[in-house]
Design brief:
This protein is of the alpha/beta class and 314 residues long. The protein has three domains: 42 residues, no CATH class; 206 residues, Rossmann fold; 48 residues, no CATH class. The chain contains eleven helices and seven strands. A seven-stranded parallel β-sheet has the order 3-2-4-1-5-6-7, sandwiched between helices. Strand 6, helix 7 and strand 7 form a beta-alpha-beta unit. Helix 10 runs antiparallel to helix 11. The longest helix has 30 residues. The chain starts with a helix and ends in a 5-residue tail after the last helix.
Length: 314
């Protein structure tokens, strides 16, 4: 494979090359490391907006409405939609989103569905690298939609510049949001399907809950939207842009991105160490597991011996 040629094609926004690059990263292909190394100097320009919330909140429809709004002003948009994994193929259960199919012929929009492949927290393991590829291809905004599993949807805060939590009236989402701990990660709230009864009450409840949080310099706005008609989408985008401006002037955007990079460094290092440990352990792991199961060793003792045998212990 000619990685140099592939990277140049990605930088020229060739959709076929971008799809190929993402597949290499998702599959852990040996060439992916060199590809990402070549693309990295061309990243850091896209603004990443994460959307999370419970199933049924209309996140995909809201993403579609945001894409339309962004395209109307000339922005190139990338969409990463993380879906549950198929129990049979391991691929994305929903595939490329049907609601985003209207953008399939638009060269200014690139949509990619990803499977979680067992990863917790609402995102796939390769999400950060996929966002980086879309950044390198010249996307101005990348919309990152989480799997919608509910209470574990917190990884998005480490992957996005602005996090939009999508709620919907009539399903007890306000209480659910508070239970899930998602309240603290939201930079903006969207109460979608606001043409339903109790929408105003849901907005009021969220605003009341937000007043209970410690002051941080930014008070997350609560925006009512009806994604199917586009109502409130412009206001939602304005709220995201206000948050971006706040972060840029306060220095928080740079700090947030630095923290993201630190987390990615640790994630990659941990994965490499784990792979190295398993490669060196051979049959030792099975043997130690049997001794732990029999009560001869504790798990901590077995781990120390595994590290020692693999020459990774201090």
């Amino acid at each position: 494979m000619d990685v140099a040629a592939l990277s140049e094609r990605v930088l020229s926004a060739d959709p076929t090359a971008v799809a190929r690059a993402i597949s290499l990263v998702e599959d852990g292909h040996p060439e992916a490391f060199e590809l990402l190394r070549r693309l990295h100097p061309h990243t850091g320009r896209a603004y990443v907006v994460g959307l999370t919330g419970p199933p049924g909140a209309g996140k995909s429809t809201l993403v579609d409405a945001l894409v339309r709004r962004l395209r109307s002003r000339g922005d190139r948009v990338g969409v990463v939609a993380v879906d549950p994994s198929s129990p049979f193929s391991g691929g994305a259960l929903l595939g490329d989103r049907i609601r985003l199919a209207d953008h399939s012929t638009d060269p200014g929009v690139f949509v990619r569905s990803m499977a979680t492949r067992g990863a917790a927290g609402g995102l796939a393991e390769a999400t950060g690298d996929v966002v980086r590829i879309l950044d390198a291809m010249g996307c101005h905004v990348v919309l990152l939609e989480t799997v919608g599993a509910g209470q574990a949807e917190v990884d998005v805060v480490g992957a996005a510049d602005t996090v939009v939590v999508v709620a919907v009236p009539g399903l007890g989402d306000t209480v659910q949001t508070l239970k899930a701990g998602i309240l603290e990660i939201a930079d903006v709230f969207a109460v979608n399907k606001a043409d339903r009864p109790d929408a105003e009450r849901t907005v009021a409840e969220l605003r009341a809950l937000l007043r209970l949080l410690p002051a941080s310099g930014w008070e997350p706005p609560v925006v009512a939207t009806v994604a199917t008609t586009g109502e409130g989408v412009a206001s939602l985008l304005e709220a995201v842009e206000r948050h971006r401006a706040y972060q840029e002037t306060s220095g928080r955007l740079e700090a947030r991105r630095r923290q993201r990079v630190q987390s990615e460094i640790l994630r990659v290092a941990e994965a490499r160490l784990r792979a190295e440990l398993l490669a060196r352990s051979g049959t030792n792991l099975d043997e130690l597991a049997a001794r732990v199961a029999s009560g001869e060793l504790s798990p901590r003792e077995a781990a120390e011996r595994l590290l020692a045998r693999a020459a990774l212990a201090p």
